[in-house]
Amino acid sequence: MDIYLYNTIKRKKERFEPIEPGKISMYVCGPTVYDTCHIGHARSAVVFDVIVRFFRAVGYEVNYVRNFTDVDDKIIKRANELGVAAEKLAEKYIQEFYRDMDALHVERATFEPRVTQHMDDIIDVIGRLIDKGYAYQVDGEVFFAVTSFRGYGKLSNRSLADMEAGARVEIDKRKKNPFDFALWKASKPNEPFWDSPWGKGRPGWHIECSAMSSKYLGETFDIHGGGKDLIFPHHENEIAQSEAANGRPFARYWIHNGFIRINHEKMSKSLGNFLMIKDVLKNAHPETIRLFLLAKQYRKPIDYSPSAIHESGLALDRIYSFLSRVNDFLGVFDDASPGRRDETHWQQFCAAMADDFNTASGLAVVFEAVRSANRMLDENHEKSTPDLRAAMANIRRGILQIGAVLGLFQEDAQAYLKGKKSVAAEKMEIDAEAVRQLIKARDEARKNKDWATADSIRDQLAEMQVVLEDRPDETVWKIKTDS
User: Fold this and answer.
1) Which residues are CB-neighbours of 20 under 8 A, at least 6 positions away?
2) Torsion sign across C-alpha atoms 238, 253, 401, 368
3) Does domain 280-430+465-479 have CATH number 1.20.120.640?
């Protein structure tokens, strides 16, 4: 299968070819652990989790590395404000990250290195940069000289000359160029430090990823990923220092996910719209959040709003309701029974994912499968032929196979539906008798094969927040609950 992805550094979609056939090396920038994770962290984590799952599902062996930045200016500042050790604060938020990611079904990476565990590797890379003339020492600190690297700006498509002309960066007179960046920072009072050839201190932000990616993946690897906000300066600086130190290309493909906006505004603490994952999960099922995050292709921005989460919850309910319906229909049917398997939906899903990991189109395959399968069951509600049972088993198998890649539909369908918070019909001001009359009219329409009328009644009931479940002997209904 040919897989095409948008390569940021080439600014175009291109065919993916790993360095080693059948194997993929991939590095994604993880969180700086100074606070609880927000919904933006969730999008990046879920996006790359799905990409890795897809690669593995189609036969690749994936070596996936996602780091933790556990020493940084923000961590030190927050720790000092709280009067706790920086390493203790970092450990607290690493565990919170795991808690949030576990709730969202994000799988662990192959390796999850921490900066503090790789100081020797970081110091080694800095030493090589100094020896090669790409970095210089000043007052116990080390800076990378951006003008020494000819390709600086190639990822972000920025000209260093243009950046210098419009520079609004803080002037540090020790730097040869305002855009030179720190590789090693001299220690200050009340800060953690490590010994180095340049004195006691700690690494700058960018150098850590260069050292850890090469440690686990080699000096040149297949894919580097992260949010669009990391393109400049973080990823740009990674390229410069890595290629300068190693004398060879760094990452071959660059993947960046789009931002999350809150009610059409940029998410920021200053605007008071900074949503933490743990708070979002208080009011929505984890798979509802995950489905929302995957409902658009990863490079596009997503607008978060209560209504968007509500719609994702409805969509998830529909899929689980269908799975529950099929489970009841099939009973103890042998899902591995002999016969030709219909892999149409899986193939359609793979085609969508092979086109720059288009989860929106991939989810559309699932929704269409549910619609067509429900129609088949509606049309044959009084009979159960071997062909129909085999078809339903195949569709169920396909949806669950797709769900394994998307990290969705992981719960038992009946348990999911039973576990939803019930909302009393009286509270929703639902006229139970009116619902029964509509269901009776729908049953009559189905009996007469008037599918348009039957579908129209189902839609009318859905607007009333009524969910139908067609069983072999009757149609039952319930009030839809919030996800």
Assistant:
1) none
2) positive
3) yes
Question: Residues for the chain: how many in total?
Answer: 483
Q: Facing residues of 260 across strands?
A: 302
Residue listed under structure tokens 């000043």: 138
Residues 371 and 235: their CA atoms lie apart, in Å, by 43
Place of tokens 């090396």: 25
Sequence ranges of the domains in the chain = 4-257, 280-430+465-479
pLDDT (tens digit per residue) in 399-423: 999 999 999 999 999 999 988 744 3
Phi, psi of 59 (to 5 degrees): 110, 0
Asked whether 367 and 393 are in contact (CB, 8 A), the reply is no
Res. 426: pLDDT tops 50: no
pTM of the model: 0.86
Tell me the per-residue pLDDT of 201-252, one tens digit each, with 9 for 90 and over: 999 999 999 999 999 999 999 999 999 999 999 999 999 999 999 999 999 9
What are 360's two structure tokens? 């929106």
3-state secondary structure (DSSP) of residue 355: strand
Question: Facing residues of 20 across strands?
Answer: 23
pLDDT at 473: 74
CATH superfamily of 4-257: HUPs (3.40.50.620)
